[in-house]
């Protein structure tokens, strides 16, 4: 048994087999061969297998994500037959008398480098594709079929790191747990793992990936951040028992379903859920959330290979609103930029992307994109109880501009006789220190505030949320952050607005009482935390002195 440790980002236990999502190229050995014809035949067989797998993935993608998104797998199949690519592999095997794996890996590196150095953004993106197909050929050569895609069994997905788009594209039903060598607990991948109720450990280090192989048995303890590879009987028994206890605890929490979020003294708040896509609505309903406090609409953009159309967006928003049957649904307008990069936005590379061109800054400078989203939102509003919120606000003038654009959109719809709901709450995220500090000036302009503690923490403490090396400096309970939230709550209430928290801190039950004492009206958390927070709220008695 070998034990690795990282940071647990969703507390649950998974027992199963490991599946390496991305094979580390550096593990490929260069070996001398005599029979070069046999090596070339191996490459052909691996390519045939790769082509069959890609065909199956293409068909699955066609059903699940539509033709536009599935096309990439057709391109991959075509790339497998590329003459230059194949000649390069054959030539390396022949002239250097080396094994097929090595020849494919070297070709992949050379081609990827060649594509990356091209000026054209489309050609640059082909670098990832050539790596992808090469990894697939190598996986077939070595028999290590990597990634969940190749497996029918549910697996523990291990990766160097996972981009949000990669996490989104995984078949959730086949993922027992996530383990990544890198990453930080506030990254969107970690947030997605929580949303999907999947045990996840991040930052286990490169040694982990070097030590494991596909199919090895392992236990992931998302509470402690430990991974037991090839566990001994005693560890297995201990963790099975822990898993049972955890499930029992979760069952207990289920008993709170249908109960109010009310303190012992009768103060009632809303507990809503955060989601990143339409397919998470099931989890929201199953966990008895009172509404959706944060729908991260940018995932519609991340999943697409081009700007989602008004109609596409309208259908997605309509589905969420209809499914929530009159319960509040707060959809946040797109928050692209920083760690959420989308190729077709063609954003410039920035030295400090978190402080750069992102979210509302994109919307206000590219009103075409913003108005398309707003039109879709307003059109969908007649199907439920919609709230719209705007991310990364720092000033009064930004809010005024946003409200002006909303007004124009309403007027245009009216002129076209397209209906929209009479009352749609408009709110802003308080996720910059500036917004919190001037919350007295912002509150009169909006219906609600929603505190984004993930960004508020990073900007207040000058701690990059993507950088795991500084996590120890990132005290999420820092008095500065709590004071900014309390100040925003006071100002919201003084101007008739309500205030919620939708960052990860909302689920921190050691702060529930403090938030209630500040007068927070709503907490929006990953669906799986709804009942845990309800339990915490029901234990608070605001008549007693603060703990
Ligand atoms: C936040 O910053 O707290 C937030 C909820 O937004 P995101 O995590 O999507 O940046
Ligand atoms: Mg944010």
CA-CA gap between termini: 43 Å
Specify Rg, calculated over alpha carbons. 25 Å
Largest sheet: 8 strands, mixed
Per DSSP, what share of the residues sits in E-state strands of 2 or more residues?
5-15%
Given as residue ranges, the uncertain stretches (5+ residues, pLDDT < 50) are 146-150
Q: Which bin fits the share of residues in helices?
A: 40-55%
Hetero groups bound? Answer: phosphoenolpyruvate, magnesium ion
Strand order of the largest sheet: 1-8-7-3-4-5-6-2
Average pLDDT value? 90
How many helical stretches? Answer: 20
Q: Could you say which structural class the secondary elements and strand pairing correspond to?
A: alpha/beta
Oligomer: single chain
The general outline is globular
The number of E-state strands comes to 16
